[in-house]
Every structure is written in C-alpha cells, then in structure tokens.
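Sequence in, structure out. First:
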Amino acid sequence: MGVPPPHTNHQEMSVNRDEKQTRRDLIDPTIMLRGWTADLIRIEKTPGGTDIVDGKPIKKKGRCDYLLCVPTRHGAPPLPVAILEAKKESVYPSLGIEQAMKYCKQFHVPFAFSTNGHQYIEFAEDTGIISNESPLNMIPTPDDLRIRYELLKHIKLDSVQADALIASYKGGEGVRRYYQDAAIRAVLERIADGEKRCLLSLATGTGKTVIAKLLLHKIASAGQLTRALFLCDRDELRTNAMGHMNDVFEDDAQIVTTDNPHPNARVLIATYQTLNISDDDLEPKFWTNNFPKGYFSHIIIDECHRSAWSKWSIVLTDNPDAIQIGLTATPRTIKGSRKNGTICDTDSEITAHNIKYFGEPVYEYGISQGQNDGYLAACEIVRRSIDIDKRTITREDIENRTAVDPYTGRLVTPDEIDDSYSAERYDNDLVLEDRMNAMSQDLFSMLLSQGDPHQKTIIFCSRDYQANQIAIKLQNIYMAWCREQNIVPRDYYAFKITAANSGDKAKDLIPEFRGSTLSHYIATTVDLLSTGVDIPNLQNVCFFRYIKSPISFYQMVGRGTRTGTPSGSKLMFTIYDYTNATRLFGESFISNAKPSRMTTSDVPKKETKIVKILEDEFQIHIENEGKSILCNINGIDTLVPYEEYKKSVSEKLVDKVSTIDELRDNWVIYKLRRHLIDDLPGGEGAVRLIRELENEQECDLFDVLAELGFGCEPKSRVERSAGFSFRHKSWLNQFPIPSQKVLISIANQFSRGGIEELESESLFDVPEIVDSGGFKSMLRLQIPPHDLIVDVKRRLLL
C-alpha cells in the first residue's frame, strides 16, 4: 500500500486550467506520486471517424484518457484494470464518471475513476457504488488495485493459472485492437477462475479469427495448450483461419482434410462438414476414427450461433474437459422445444442454445460500437415499398392471368394453384415476372442516382430461381444502359452465386467478386454469401427476400460492415430494403426449436407447386419510404428515419449551444468539441454519416452542424482556408511578416483535414510551416502559440 503524499492546496494555485493543462499540472504529477508511472498508463486510441480529402481517407483518432494497468511479474506486461477520466479543474470531479463507466465496459476493466485534478470519485465492481469525492492524492495505488482485482476475479496474478492472462502478445501490443484485447482478457480471466466454457459476441468484421489466434497463442505461451481445434462452417473461414494460425504456430497449424486429418498438429482447423463426413453413418466415423475422446485441450467454435442439431456436437461431448469457446456475432436463444414445450438437454442441442450452453457472453462488441470507433463502416438504409406486396394474390387472380410451370413452360391447372399467396411467398411459390422486373429496374435506377452503376452489391434472393432471374434482368438492364451511353460494357456485371451454381463454380466466383475492380459487380445469392465471405469493398447490401430470423439478417448485413481495402478506405455502405428486412435491427436473437427428424418423417410433407405469372400481367409501383440510419439507443440497435434523426441532432445541438458563436467557441477547443459531438444522438459517426448523405464531404463537421442547427450555408475546407489571408488581413498585419507567413501556413492546413489538422502534435513539422519560419517565429511574439492557434481556428470558422 502506498503512502499518500503531503496534501497540496491546488485550489489556491488554480489558474482555471483547461483539461490538457489540468492533466499536465495536476493529474500527472499526483498519480505518479501514487505509483502510476508511465509504464503503467496506456492511452488506447481508435480510428474514430474518417474524412475523405482529395479522394484519400484521413483517420481521426479516438482515445480514452488513462487506462491504468497494474504490474504482474518481472518480464510480463502490466494488466489493465481501471479507467481514469480527466476533466478540467473548474468542473465537478464527478462529471466524467459516466464516461469512465462506459469505457470500463468497453475495455473490460472493473474500476472507473473521474477527476478534475483536485478530487476524484470512483465506481468499482467490488463495491457496486459510486463513491463520494476524495482528494486525488488519496487515489488507490497500483498495489491497492492489484489486491482488489485479485479478490474480485478470484485470481492470483503470480499463480500458474494466470500465466496465459499475463502472457505477452506475439509481435507486441500493437498487433491487437483494444476490444480484441478486452475480449481475450475476459476469456482468460474465466479460464483462470476454473471455467471451461466461454462465449464471445462481437459484430461481423471485428476480427473474431484474430482473437482466436491471439488467444490460443497466449494459452500456448503459458504451456497450457496440448491440442486445439478451430471449428468453422465454411471453406472461406477455414482458409482465413489457417492463414492467421500459421502466423503464430507455423507448421504446427494444419487444415483437417479427409485425405489427411493431421492428428499430430498442435492446432487443427476444420469445417463441420469435414468432421461429419458421412450422413449415412449412425455416427461420424471420420471423427471417431481419427480423434479419440479427450483428444483436444481447447476447442473454439466459430459462428457458434449455427445450430448443432446435426452430429458435429460430438466434437464437444467427446471433449468434456476441454476449454470450449464460442465465437458469434449473434448469440442464439432457443424458444420452445421438441418435447412438451421445454428445451431438452440432449447432445444434439449443444450450442443451438448458445447462452444456455456457454453462459452469457463474457464480452460483447456490437455493430454500433464498431461504427462509433471507426472499425466498422456506417450504414445508410434506403427503404422501398412494393405496392403488390401489400395485398394477397388469390387463386382467382392467377386464373385470370397467364400462369405457367417455370421449369416446363406449360400452363398450370387450377388444382396446382393454392387458395392465396402472401408477399412472404412471392418468388418462393409464386414467381411474378413483373415484380422482379420492377425491383431490378428500381435498384439499377438507385445505383445510377449515386452516379455510377459499377458498385459492388449483394442481393439476397428467396431461392436459386429468383437469384438466377434477377442476375439476368440486371445484366440486360445494364447492357441497354451501356448502349444508350455509348460505352463498352464490363464483364460479369451481374451474376448468380449460389450453392447451385453451374458452369462457373461459386468458389471460383467469390475471389473475382472480392478482388476485381473491372468486373463482377452485382452478385445475386440466397444465403451462400451470408457468412464466411469477406468482401471488404462491398458498397451495397440489398434485400429482395423476406427474412424472419434476426440472426440471418445480422449476418447478411455484416457483409457490408468492413471498412474496405486498404482498411479505412470505405466510410459507409447502403442497405436497399425492399422487404422491410431492416425492421429486425435490435431484435433479440431467438430461434424456435426444430422438431425432431423422427417427428417430421411421420408427417407427410405437402409438395408445393411453383407457379409463374408471366410479364405484363401486373402493374407494379415501387415507392420511396425514406432513408434511415442505424443508432444505438439504450443499448439497442434502432432505425431512425433520416429527417427525424437530423431534427433530433438539431434540437440537441441548439440545446447545448444556443448560437453559432457559441458553437464556434466550443469547436475550437478540442475537449469542448468532443463533449459536444459525443452528446449528440448517435455520436460522431452519425454526424459524419449526415455529411456523407448531404454530399458535404469537403466540409468540416462544424459546417454540417452550423447548417443543421443555425441554417448557415456550409463552406468547404478549401474555401475557408483559401479565404483566410484576405478576410483577416488587418489582423495579420499586426504581426511581423515572418509570423504572418507562419499563421497563413497554419491556416492552410485546415484544407487538408479540417480543424483537427491544427491540433496535430506534428503541426510545426509540416514542411510549409517549417519553411515559413516555424515554431521559432511564433515564440518571438508576445502571444502564446497555443492562443494564436486557437485564434486562427476561430477566424477560419467565421
């Protein structure tokens, strides 16, 4: 336990420091005396939002104030345990505790502190309460928090059980993102405490395979890994996993194939299909012949939301003593059952009910958080309404039109037609050529409205037939457009990619779709592309099919959340919703229990006849139902109509700052700006999305908000920067010529990336500023450089 230093009456020496000065003058010296040396403090950064300037992405970093770590043992990295949120000295110390508590969840640490440099308050998992104010020189020491952490987590950091938890990452701390580290620590804490099952829930595109790789390496470094199995359900995922595992385990990581199961490798990567090699066997002989019971010490189930009704659950039941870790973006709960309305605890239901089997997720990182951090692309939702989908088509409607068998072309008879068809059955049981024509033409028009039809797009269709027909229709529409525009059409504009692909195999088309920039633009599919296929530069996800499952929906949306190649080059993607699929945002991941095979085999299945109604039989109208954006409200993904969202941002903005001058005064001070943006609905990510949707990419976010809240005409960054010297000529003339040149050069940086460019630590290393006289020229003036830069920022925004 540390001894508190003599109390210093900071208040008597107060000069009303801003947050940066408070950290430097008050917080840093005090916590250092309490033992929080530089090696025990991390400043974790996130990409934050992204600006596009001159066609190139410029990252805007997010950060936490202090991530406090406790020492573990000699040669091992310190362990994160607390967040310390800093505020300027003129506010109450409690002002930052809510933010600190939020960060605690994100960073998976149990202690939260907030301070104004004089006093601090604390929230901790071991007490469950927010404390009263105490002098900052009494804040807990590293030894204090280590003892409390060990008691809370039931872990001794100098024990063998903690070896994996405190092991170093191969390649250093820079190889992981903050949330990946938090997820890994959450799992390793549970394992150290004796738990054998853990569930991680992270949004698609956040790197669950990277987490698996780093996690297994830490366990192996601690000497606790005998053999590990990484189990996935797609060849694409298997190949991706092999690349990652090979990074750290080299030849000790191998893919299981039917020709070579590689039983002696330390890390095996396999698909469910490989292990359950023969559906005709009463048990999976390939598995039982090659991997005896208790063979694996660790098993990681990727996409574990997928049902284990089939026989691969034997992988888990044969290894009951193994550490079993589930990875998913959509943790499933099963409702109902096979027997008597309750869920049966049979082997075949393992992991079908993720939360019951693995327990609640030990760490969660959702799509909204990923978007706010800048690790996932934001999404715009364009909802379209098809008039015919609002009605039911009856037998009489069909008999009055030309209806055929889609496979033979013969006219169908009345007894082959059902009494009625609702919209959910369109293109499954009732094929409407007019509807498919209208949807295809409408989507192509939407792409043209964005300036270019050559956009990577996935269309999710009801069945293989619809996927095939939509691909043909879009290809024909595109060819006609190329003739009208007198341009050469590109190859494979629209193509089908389903499990039933003939000719070009699906696995051969996927790399073309992913990598080609001159062909393969619109892929129609049923569910082949819903999981396990990464298309980083995908621009659109389109729903032509009706979807009931939130799990399936989120997996499909996840195809668009990746931020591009190179990483960060894609700001957003668009969801075109023709079937109201986006209603499923925020829905719980609950599935109905499936009936047993014995039960279904006893009931004769009615064979449904597919009926096709030819063209020019219906007049189809598609209407715009407006744009929406995805926000996180009270922890739930929520669709908010775009105009309603803009109104809510405007109302919140003018509630926080009542005039354009007050907005400007907040904007030029980093922390005031950050608090203002963070308090707006949806945070910075949603404001940046507004800028994209309003085609104001060349503007600083100040202009976006100034227009939204106060009706000011937005100006581009270049326009503001270029007019600086003319508009403020009289102000500049009070300074020596060399200093004027430096100030103008500083203002010129605004055109590169907005207000943040003038706050960069390397501002005075910019060649243009160095050539103008640089920092030395500023020091010759009586006004402090910091104040001058703030003045430049304010004048740029006038």
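Second:
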Amino acid sequence: MALEPGVSCGVCLRCKEGRYNLCPDMVFAATPPNDGTLCKYYALPADLCYKLPDNVSTKSGAVVEPLAVAVHITVRQGGVKQGDNVVIFGAGPVGLLCCAVARTYGARTVVVVDINQQRVNFAINYAATRGIIAENGKDVEQVAKDMIEECELGRGADVAIDASGAERSIQTAIHVLRPGGTFVQGGMGKPDIQFPITAMCTKELNVKGSFRYGPGDYDLAIQLLGTGKVSVKDLMTHQFAFADAEKAFEVVKAADGIKVIIEGPSDVAHDI
C-alpha cells in the first residue's frame, strides 16, 4: 500500500471544491504539532490508502508521496506538455521527480539547475537533458540570458519550476521564461523575498504556487510507477532499519545522497 499522510476535514469550502490540500484543518504527519509515522501501526481513512500494482514494491511505494508532489507541480500547476522547454531549479528528490514527470509528459528539453555538481550529474543520468551549476556572482538577468542561449531555449522556457526555495533561483526562473510562460513555486524558502515583478508583468507570466498534492495526484503517481514511465529505484540511495531511524535523519540533514528509506518494524510483515 501507499499512504497519503494527510487527513483533511472534508467539510470546509476548500475540501468541498476538491482542493483538500488547502484545507485549513489538515492534519499532516510530521508537520507540527502532529507526530509522524515512525510507529508500528499508523491508522488512516481507507480513501487515503492506495493498493500498489504487483510490480511496484512497498519500497518504491514509499516514494509515491514525493512523486505525487512532483505530479502536482509539473502536471496540475505547470501544465507541461509535448514539446515544452522546462527549467527546474533544485535537484533534490522533488526536483528530480519533476524532471522525470516532465520528460514523461513529452518535454523536449529539461534543464536542471543546482549548486551541487554531484546532484546535477545525477539529474542528467536520471531524467534531465541538460544540467547547469548555479552561479552566485552574476546578475540574475544575465544568468538567465546565458542559460537561454546555452540551452537553446529560443525566447525562453515554456515552464520554470523552483523546487529549491532559493531567492536567486526564483528570480532567475522569472527571467528565463518566455513571454506568456508559466512559473510554479514548489520549494519552500524565506517567507519574503525580492521578486522581479516588472518582468512578471511585462511578460504576462502565469505565476502559481504548489502545495503538496490534490485529487488524482496519488493515482497518477502510482500509474506512472506501475507502467514504468517513471522509475524511483535510483533515487533511493540509502536504506536504514527501523531501529536506526535517527541515522537516516542525520544523512538527510547532511544532504548526503538523494532519498533515504526507513524500513518498517521488523515484527510487521512487509515486502521491501
């Protein structure tokens, strides 16, 4: 099974209109003040439990949650389609999965931008068509112009996704877009930033936020895994026994590897 770790109220206006990810009373696992799922048993309503295809292991099923986030960013909010040029800032798990989903939906070019060379190299081998190391010294408009020229993006990217939350990445993303392009903010960063509002207005950009996932995103994520259109095996670089969960968090904090998996309790049946 794959589990959605958030329970909405089901009765507020946002829930009624099918945007339950925006429910003000959402109880989401491991989001303070709510505890996470590191326990022997974890109860959820049946509609938040999804049967995995026979060819998808529970280990891969554990990555359905970030894949559903990437589906929501790339497909629902970004509207990536056949032939699009897409630039994705941030090569963490969500950014990498956005690359994979964009390629699955027919993007012609998928450029990934990150400050970490190892992650950029990983992204190119995984799903990106081009990789760029973020430059901190140059003016962001010049960085965007260089990126457009180097990656042959014409008048600019059709879709830009920020999965980093970094202020410079957000600014560069606005400048790298073509007129009428779409920007999606998926990464969390500082509460307030300097934003290139003139560029946004004069290019009449579609600027969207993205928060978790909504109706159908889990189903689509599982379908992409089941059909083999998206693979998550290479992303799982570390695996720890349940008793060693604290070590897993240390690896994540050190930004070592890509996706860290914690096995279930040894006395509970599972097929990892």
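Remark: The chain has two domains: 2-66+215-235, 69-209.
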